[in-house]
Design brief:
- By secondary structure, the chain is an alpha/beta fold.
- The chain folds into two domains: about 110 residues, 3-Layer(aba) Sandwich (Rossmann fold); about 180 residues, Dihydrodipicolinate Reductase, domain 2 (2-Layer Sandwich).
- Helices cover about 40% and strands about 20% of the residues.
- It has twelve helices and 13 strands.
- Helix 5 packs antiparallel against helix 12 and helix 6 crosses helix 8.
- It is globular, with a radius of gyration of 20 Å.
Length: about 325
């Protein structure tokens, strides 16, 4: 099949390399707002270069992937859907919740997959399977962690929407997806003890959230932009009968201490691109199946919207120092 990729920044260029290596992809068309970037990535992966998103959409592609800046997602998503094309769009749907709701309403029913790669991580899939099979008994607590080794650039943070909308959404999606339960209440707190830019941008560099799920189970989320040992993505699910975890592999960026402690071979994961490399490949392979019509979207606009609502609840909770129900948002 012939696919088009819009946006060739850090994640877009990574996706271009992944797509070029997939057997299902016969040809790739790429474009970026910076022509030199378009030319460089096209040359690297053997893709065709398009001058604009409009020309890419009209280039006879079978599907479109959107990895452009967040504020461009709604326009590009609508344009690709209007052209009758299946679309993969990186999270989030839009920079703000009102825009996300409007965007979801305008493309609902189309073949759209939103990018949440933990849904394709082998360990996360195994934990979800154990929960669904009832192996853990009644689930009472889920712990989800995303710790970055260092903050992204200020320019990125300024357009990210804040920690909850940029980073925490991955934990919110993982908790919701693994348990099969909706998030009904969020209590969030955070701090900005690192670079002054976080306070200047009205953001935090570390956060903790308590989630209440529809069945009364609890979710505990921890995030930080400063985890010097490496990139830490983990999930634990604790039930009345058993417990299971994802992310306790040899790249675990934690130093176990004490007699009989877990041995971690290392080296520690340093970035999301090495920790989730196989998940990204599986995610994009899944999109080729969506394009081919052999698979329904594994992460719909409504899934993304539910997470956006929970992230907005977290933002309000941090500001107002209180629990916030998602039906308030």
């Amino acid at each position: 099949m012939r696919l088009g990729l819009i946006g060739l920044g850090r994640i877009g260029a990574f996706h271009a390399r992944t797509l070029a290596a997939l057997d299902a992809v016969d040809s790739l068309v790429v474009t970026d707002a910076v022509p030199a970037v378009t030319a460089a990535v096209a040359a690297e992966v053997g893709a065709e270069a398009a001058d604009s998103p409009e020309k890419l959409i009209a280039a006879g592609v079978d599907g479109v992937l959107i990895a452009a800046a967040t504020d461009a997602h709604p326009v590009l998503l609508r344009a690709a859907v209007a052209a009758g094309l299946p679309v993969f769009c990186e999270k989030p749907l839009a920079a703000g919740l009102a825009d996300a709701r409007a965007t979801a309403a305008s493309v609902r029913g189309a073949r759209v997959q939103i990018g949440y790669p933990r849904r394709f991580d082998a360990a996360f899939l195994a934990v979800r399977g154990a929960v669904a099979a009832g192996e853990l008994g009644r689930v009472h607590t889920v712990r989800s962690t995303t710790l970055d080794p260092a903050p992204p650039p200020r320019a990125y943070l300024a357009g990210s929407g804040g920690l909850f909308r940029d980073c925490t959404v991955h934990d919110l999606d993982a908790v919701r997806w693994v348990t099969g339960q909706e998030i009904v209440e969020v209590y969030a707190t955070g701090s900005d003890r690192g670079d002054p830019m976080f306070g200047e941008l009205g953001d935090v560099d570390a956060a903790a959230l308590v989630l209440t799920m529809a069945d009364g189970s609890l979710g505990l989320v921890s995030n930080s932009r400063y985890n010097g040992r490496g990139y830490d993505v983990r999930l634990e699910v604790h039930g009345a009968a058993d417990s299971a975890a994802a992310g306790l592999d040899d790249g675990l960026p934690v130093r176990p201490l004490g007699p009989g402690a877990l041995t971690v071979a290392g080296p520690a994961h340093t970035f999301f691109m090495d920790r989730l490399a196989s998940a990204f490949r599986a995610e994009l392979a899944a999109f080729t199946e969506v394009v081919a019509g052999t698979r329904e979207s594994p992460c719909t606009v409504d899934d993304a919207l539910a997470v956006a609502v929970a992230a907005e609840a977290a933002t309000i909770s941090l500001r107002e120092h209180r629990p916030v129900r998602t039906d308030e948002v």
